[in-house]
Amino acid sequence: MESIIADLKFASRMLIKRPAFSVVAVITLALGIGANTAIFSVVNSVLLRPLPYSRPERLVAAFDSFPDFPRDGLSELEYMTLRGETKSLAEIAISNGANFTLTGSGDSERVQGAVVSSNYFDLLGVRVALGRGFARDEDLVGKNNIVILSDGFWKRRFGADPRVIGQGVTLSGANFTIAGVLPPGFKSPIELQFAASADVWVGYGFNPGNLNRGSHGLVTIARLGEGVTLEQAQDETKTIIGRLMAENPTFYPTDGSFNSYLTPLHTAIVGDVRPALLVLLGAVAAVLLIACANVANLSLARSESRQKEIFVRTALGASRSQIVRQLLVESLVLAAAGGAAALLLAKWILDALVAINPGNIPRIDEIGLDSRVMLFTLLVSLFTGVLFGLAPALQAARTDLISTLKEGGRTSNAQSRGWLRQLLVVAQTALALVLLIGAGLLLRSFWELQRVPTGFNPEHLLTMRLSPPATRYGSNQQVASLYEGLTTRLQSLPGVQSVAVSDRVPIGGGNSDTIMQIEGRPFELETARYNTDFRVVSPEYFQTMGQRLISGRYFVEFDRESSPNVTVVNETLARRQWPDEDPIGKRLRLLDAPPERATSQYMTIVGVVADAKNRTLTGDTRQDVYVPLRQQAGSMGRLGQSVSMGLMVRTTADSASLTNAIREEVRAADPDIPITQVRTMEEIIGTAIVRPRFNLILLATFAVVALGLGAIGIYGVIAYSVAQRTHEIGVRMALGAQPRDVLTMVVGQGMRLALAGAGIGLIGAFALTRVMASLLYGVSARDPVTFAAISVLLTGVALGACFIPALRATKVDPMDALRHE
After folding, report:
1. What is the pLDDT of residues 458-480, one digit of tens each?
2. What percent of the chain has pLDDT over 70?
3. At 645, which helix (H) or strand (E)?
4. How far apart are CA 456 and CA 507, in angstroms?
5. Are 628 and 555 in contact (CB under 8 A)?
6. pLDDT of residue 597
7. Furthest-apart CA pair in the chain: how many Å?
8. Is 114 exposed, middle or buried (0-12, 13-18, 19+ CB in 10 A)?
């Protein structure tokens, strides 16, 4: 122990005596270790930390897989059947997102919520902090008049008053009794997955005598029974749902494309972000290796100046192992200082990550420097200390004592160290190229995302969500009249060009899938697919959105209840269904239920509009059917269930500046109408690409750091080589070598290293970028343009790093060099 303490003291004195070397090494290590600490903190929170529920390893999620929806939820019939028949699942519960308009307790407010089965919180092992949870039958229709509040909503809306238990509230026109308050910090699985929050929780409202069989989408979680494996539970689930398929062929595809499966709940929550986080973790590991190579190069150069010191210590009786130990201790002291600085840098990086948070990374609000992250930093610091210190220590310990005393005896040692330094530079260059190509692919992908044609004009377009209380707007025609009146009021505002409403806002407003039947064509509901999107819009919708008319006409004011039912379809639907015919005048209807429950009537196509990205920017364009607001009651009757609509306002100036004026007009029409989700369409599009932007920023940052460290490494090796070869260069110039010859020689030495590293890096990039395929859009993981451009960039940077010391070499005075030697 005394010898180790002595080594630590000696190492500290040696590093203090060389502050320039020590500071550069600590900063370099802090960059590598700090980046690893920050990304590991994210990985720890998202991928490694157990879910905050009772025995989370036993929780699974259940999905149905359709051709167009590989991760769809269950139907009511499937859930209730599984709940009654399963033996391998100890418990099974469902949830579904829901929005409510809260009235009767202060100002009206649109609140986020969820409808759940009565055993939902019991399954997760969560107890309410105040009041009680759901009783067993309080998820049945007629008994689901109990509401449970989140802790945050209870504090914000009710001032954390415990007397609210037992009080009544009105949600979307229905009376509910507050039964309980959830504990602080509780987040349901769906909240964790989508970084969302729910304010109120109510019972689902099952009707056992009339369960929905064809509509899927219930978010289903379950707990495995004791001793039951996931495979056993999945086999039983497939058997039960397979029987339901045989009994209800109308609701399932018959071509074998349907599947049902279970997956660990943790995987279901974080599965979408796992590839990106693993890519980032690999990127920071590469940065750390480059940093270690840089410090190792510095240590090798420094060890050259300590040869006589090491000889003296050896001559005084120090063994080779003692020399290696002393030099390793110095490396570990440097690594410890770098690790301490890395913690400060990691904290700054984590703050920056939260600031640019894409909003859809699960559990990102939980990231921090906890004990596991601190232990990781300690281990990484020790690892890097050994990694960059071992080779220089072994090289120094092999010093030839006799040749060290001779004037020219340094040659053999210098040559062996030179080869090691050059090998490190090649490795740095290869790693930097892999990172740069990865960042380049993400940049190309992001560029392609930004160029995706939306099919409408997003500029100067303000959107918001209006949620009138169902108590006063119970019929579809009342809702239509309300929105028509609001459109007229808003149209008169200065700066407003046009106003429209739609049940769903493009890109960020959800979707409605249905089955389409074309008049006069053979049709079997049993084999039909939910491959058509349905939207209710006002007559001004297409003009307001800037959606181009291909043929026919837009909706007009005369498309009302008493007029023939009409529809406008998108170009994709027209091309698929009538590739060689004019679709104008053709008739279709929409069905999302068996024929005996279908309410849709045939509608005549009066127009074809350009395709629009109504779902996502990156998804395939689907068949879109648009129905006039006044005629929607004859199509599917959706607004009778939900009167919430999206409002789109096209302005002549800054859209956001009109928000207050629009709010005042809505309040004047009805003060009980909450306004939510106020965003410009450009903000919605920006949100749709926020995760690719997040990945790009991080990987590009690490790639630039790697490029900088790699350039410094090349510069350091060439500069040191020039210093070591001053005598040789002086001799060459004395014998007639021109400055350009020296320049070519030195640059050529550095470029050979850079090109060797680039060649190895290209091979590595071809092999490793395949894991990035799921993160890319519109570009191949082996895009030749990106590979070529990044290779040229790296070569140019390497050339610059070589040119500076090469230029210095051309200024060597032959007489001074020879006199010095």
Report:
1. 999 999 988 787 667 767 778 88
2. 85
3. strand 645-651
4. 11
5. yes
6. 38
7. 109
8. buried
The pair of structure tokens assigned to 341 is 């600085």
Beta strands 566-570 and 513-518, pairing class: unpaired
Q: Which residue in 34, 35, 32, 30 sits closest to 338, CA to CA?
A: 30
pLDDT exceeds cutoff 50 at 633: no
CB 421 within 8 A of CB 720: yes
pLDDT band at residue 126 using 50, 70 and 90 as cut-offs: very high
The backbone region for 195, taken as left when phi is positive above 0, alpha when psi lies in -120 to 50, beta otherwise, is: left
Dihedral angle of Cα 682, 686, 687, 691, to the nearest 10 degrees: 170
- Alpha-carbon distance 742 to 808, whole Å? 10
The yes-or-no verdict on residue 636 having pLDDT over 50 is no
State the sign of the Cα–Cα–Cα–Cα dihedral 288, 291, 296, 297: positive
Candidate ranges 4-8, 113-117, 656-660; pick with highest mean pLDDT: 113-117
- For the CA atoms of 652, 654, 656, 660, the dihedral, rounded to the nearest 10 degrees, stands at -60
| Closest among 284, 309, 386, 357 to 40, alpha carbons compared | 284
Rg (CA), the chain: 34
Give the other-Cβ count within 10 Å of 524's Cβ.
Answer: 9
Buried b (16+ CB within 10 A) or exposed e, 691-709: bbbbbbbbbbbbbebbbeb
Interacting residues of 778 by C-beta distance below 8 A, sequence separation 6+:
444, 445, 448, 449, 452
The torsion angle over the Cα atoms of residues 661, 666, 668 and 673, rounded to 10 degrees, is -140
Q: Please give the Cα distance from 579 to 1 (Å, whole number).
A: 85
What span, in angstroms and rounded, lies between the C-alpha atoms of 357 and 564?
49
- With 60 as the cut, is the pLDDT of residue 821 above it? no
- 719-767 confidence digits (pLDDT tens): 777 777 777 777 777 777 788 888 888 888 888 888 998 899 999 888 8
Size of the chain, expressed as the number of residues it contains: 821
What distances in angstroms separate CA 207 from CA 85, 113, 695, 734, 798, one per listed residue? Answer: 18, 20, 45, 99, 71
Closest C-alpha among 511, 747, 728, 696 to residue 621: 511
The pLDDT-based confidence of 787 (bands split at 50, 70, 90) is: very high
Query: Are residues 94 and 220 in contact, defined by beta-carbon separation less than 8 angstroms?
Result: yes
- For 717, 724, 804, the CA distances from 308, given in Å and listed in that order, are 22, 17, 31
Cα angle for residues 578, 582, 585 (degrees, 5° grid): 105
Using CB atoms within 10 A of its CB, is residue 356 exposed (0-12), middle (13-18) or buried (19+)?
exposed
User: Measuring CA to CA, which residue among 117, 119, 102 is closest to residue 168?
Assistant: 102
Strand partners, 624: 533
For residue 794, give Cα distances in angstroms to 430, 432, 644, 789: 10, 8, 54, 9
**pLDDT single digits (tens) 498-527:** 999 998 888 865 667 788 888 888 876 656
Beta strands 532-537; 513-518: pairing state: antiparallel
3-state secondary structure of 677: strand
Tokens linked to 148: 């449970």
pTM listed for this prediction = 0.78
Residue 355, exposed/middle/buried by CB under 10 A (0-12, 13-18, 19+)? exposed
Q: Round to whole Å and give the CA distance between 813 and 819.
A: 10
Residue where the block lists tokens 């370099």: 28
* Contact indicator for 642, 479 with CB cutoff of 8 Å: no
Which of 623, 487, 508, 485 is CA-nearest to residue 567?
Answer: 623
Closest by Cα among 573, 575, 555, 574 to 565: 555
Residue 609 has pLDDT above 90, yes or no: yes
The model's pLDDT over 370-422, given as tens digits with 9 standing for 90+, comes to 888 999 999 998 888 887 777 666 665 665 555 555 544 444 455 555 677 78
